[in-house]
Amino acid sequence: MAKQRALWVLGTMSGTSLDGVDAAMLRTDGHDILEFGPDAYRPYSPGEQSTIRRAFGQWPGDPQVAAAAEVVETAHAEILARFSGAEMIGFHGQTLAHDPAHGRTHQAGNGALLAQALDLPVVWDFRSTDVQMGGQGAPLAPFFHFACAKWIKATEPLAILNLGGVGNITWIDPSQPSPEAPGALLAFDTGPANAPINDLMQVRLGLTQDAGGALAASGRVDEKLVQAFLTQAYFHKIPPKSLDRNDFQPFFKKTHRLSNADAAATLTAIAAAAVAKAAEHFPQPITRLLVAGGGRHNAAMMAQLSQRMNCIVEPIETAGLNGDMLEAQAFAYLAARVAFGLPTSCPSTTGVAAAVGGGQISRP
Ligand SMILES: Nc1ncnc2c1ncn2[C@@H]1O[C@H](COP(=O)(O)OP(=O)(O)OP(=O)(O)O)[C@@H](O)[C@H]1O
Ligand SMILES: CC(=O)N[C@H]1[C@@H]2OC[C@@H](O2)[C@@H](O)[C@@H]1O[C@H](C)C(=O)O
Question: Among its keywords, does the record have Nucleotide-binding (predicted)?
């Protein structure tokens, strides 16, 4: 296939933890990452967070969705104006409602308005086509993870793990010619990651997170509970498969009898054990697990992962990538693929019927 002209693209992500907007630039021809550029972060104020939170689970037409969209658009216009040299924007927006079973998903924020405000083409609404074609609409980062594996010159199968509220993993065979080639990728949600730990910290101690994993490190893992957790149907389901943040809430009632430290240790071990269980689905074993997302700052979680995985576990920074900006970079990369008419998901990443390019392009 003839290679396209390369573009400098500026990608953005507003994640499920609602902390703020990440933005990052990269140059790509839609296949390879050619260069990484600058990045920035713009937190949401508490007021902005509550406006967005009020719209969670609502669909367009609801006034709360319109209010959330305005916050998202304003925050993005602000952060994007700090950059120069971008030829295109990849705008993910903020997921408010996601219902792939009924073929619908909604990310707040209007890309056409941003295109006018920034005088640049904006690629947005990345997930709709995939869910309309029977896919989960997520995760979409795997095609970018494939390019990352090439960028770091990986030659053996490896995996990239994102530890956000939920964990999601991409298994990659970098010897394949393209991300949509059969056998190149397998991506799915591993299980809960930080969300149940954050909930525990909030309910028991009024804190937002177990900073550094200090509380977990001081507790004892209830291994029986960890093993009982893994007997649930989700862990035996063949991927691709995905989760909602609160899918395991009923099980977590079983941690109520544990002390704060033991409950934190056990929830942390559960997140790691779910990743090790996920590895049983890999088409071939891996030698290296690269970890991105907030959970890589949790030393207890990283230690549990190392203990339970049969491979080297390291923060993605050891491979020269930025674990805080990976998702923003992913939407820069995916925007270029949309512009060049290339697919952004395939059956082994979202379960979609065939490789498909999502996203619409709005021009100023
Ligand atoms: N220093 C730290 N110590 C312990 N945990 C941390 C630390 N920093 C971040 N985290 C955890 O990581 C979470 C945020 O992770 P991240 O930013 O990857 O999530 P997100 O992008 O909003 O989620 P998702 O990827 O599901 O959209 C925090 O809520 C917290 O639980
Ligand atoms: C529907 C939706 O917005 N999903 C997000 C969410 O946040 C993390 C995880 O759940 C992932 O599936 C996805 O985002 C990442 C960037 C993705 O699509 O790869």
Answer: yes
Q: Are strands 88-99 and 7-14 parallel, antiparallel or unpaired?
A: parallel
CA distance 23 to 14: 9
CA 154 to chain centre: 21
* Domains within the chain, CATH numbers bracketed: 7-136+331-344+353-362 (3.30.420.40), 153-319 (3.30.420.40)
Closest ligand to Cα 18: 1
What is the position in ligand 1's atom list of the atom closest to the CA of 163? 18
Confirm or reject: Cβ of 173 under 6 Å from ligand 2: no
Find the 257 Cα to ligand 2 centroid distance in Å: 32
What's the pLDDT tens digit per position in 70-122?
999 999 999 999 999 999 999 999 999 999 999 999 999 999 999 999 999 99
Q: 3-class SS at 122?
A: strand
18 assigned binding-site residue: yes
- Give the C-alpha distances (Å, rounded to integers) separating 278 from 137, 187, 345: 20, 10, 20
DSSP code, position 175 = T
The CA-atom distances, in angstroms, between 120 and each of 190, 304, 361 are 37, 45, 10
Tokens of residue 97, six digits: 């409602």
Residues whose CB falls within 8 Å of the CB of residue 307, separated by 6 or more in sequence, listed in order: 272
Q: How far apart are CA 230 and CA 115, in angstroms?
A: 46
Q: Which atom of ligand 1 is nearest to the CA of 194?
A: 31
